[in-house]
Amino acid sequence: MFRKLLNSELGRPDIEKYKTLDKSPITVVLDNVRSRHNIGSAFRTCDAFRAAGIVLCGISSTPPAPEIHKSALGAEFSVDWVYRPDTVEAVKELKSKGYTIIGVEQTENSVSTDDFLYGRRRLEADGRYAVIFGNEVHGIAQEAVDLCDFTLEIPQYGTKHSLNVSVATGIVLYVLSRGLHV
């Protein structure tokens, strides 16, 4: 028999407490993500994995927005975020601050998420990482891909060539977070 736990039984911190907790060394960069629902989902996923923050770039909407709030369920208040008008400039800024830039994209020589999931490759716990997720139709702009230290690819076995950006965000943050628990 399984009884669903009540929210009060989950031991989750409130927003004030969350803000004081250690965060993972992972920052999410959204490159021209069109859907406010996808952006809200990214906020919620970043909250779940205690990501360091989100950089919203280009046409990506920013809070406050009802559609973001609907998907984020308030995570837009717990997760730190900034807006940058140009993804390439945002990535250059992060690179200059010592971030390793990881693009989630199908490229020549991309690294499979399986290599992280099964421990064949890990992130350094003392590093700083910016993970770029691209536009729903065009992916990450090539100019931003060119700035990546490496790219990750999620193995897929069906007829479609990509996953929804919010789904990809959840998969990649889970995979990268293994071994980086704060």
From TrEMBL:
<dbReference type="Pfam" id="PF00588">
    <property type="entry name" value="SpoU_methylase"/>
</dbReference>
<keyword id="KW-0489">Methyltransferase</keyword>
<feature type="domain" description="tRNA/rRNA methyltransferase SpoU type">
    <location>
        <begin position="26"/>
        <end position="174"/>
    </location>
</feature>
<dbReference type="InterPro" id="IPR029028">
    <property type="entry name" value="Alpha/beta_knot_MTases"/>
</dbReference>
<dbReference type="GO" id="GO:0005829">
    <property type="term" value="C:cytosol"/>
</dbReference>
<dbReference type="InterPro" id="IPR001537">
    <property type="entry name" value="SpoU_MeTrfase"/>
</dbReference>
<keyword id="KW-0808">Transferase</keyword>
<dbReference type="GO" id="GO:0006396">
    <property type="term" value="P:RNA processing"/>
</dbReference>
<dbReference type="InterPro" id="IPR004441">
    <property type="entry name" value="rRNA_MeTrfase_TrmH"/>
</dbReference>
<dbReference type="GO" id="GO:0032259">
    <property type="term" value="P:methylation"/>
</dbReference>
<dbReference type="InterPro" id="IPR029026">
    <property type="entry name" value="tRNA_m1G_MTases_N"/>
</dbReference>
<dbReference type="GO" id="GO:0008173">
    <property type="term" value="F:RNA methyltransferase activity"/>
</dbReference>
<dbReference type="GO" id="GO:0003723">
    <property type="term" value="F:RNA binding"/>
</dbReference>
<protein>
    <submittedName>
        <fullName>RNA methyltransferase</fullName>
    </submittedName>
</protein>
